[in-house]
Amino acid sequence: MDDYHQLGVGDSASIVSALEVLHWGGELVLHCLYHPRERRAYTLHFMHCRNVQLDPLDNGTVSEASLIGITLGSGAHQKPAIVTTNAFELSILYEKWELKWT
Asked: pTM of the entire structure?
């Protein structure tokens, strides 16, 4: 996972339990769980999005997607973030991102 450590969540794996689209795609929130056993919840929030592309990689049979890789790109709409899971790949051109433990 290219930028996974930059998130500051730790060394264990994360899963994505939901993807929330707000303000007609202007904001995206990934609802995640850190560590498969402990399942500590956090959100990864991308704000002021300009371009969002979601490519499904499976036919909807996965209820939680394993986070395979993340590249945060550059904020201020310079370079897209790429989030890859076993269920989808997401490309987001954004202004800034924020992680919150819930």
From this structure: 0.91
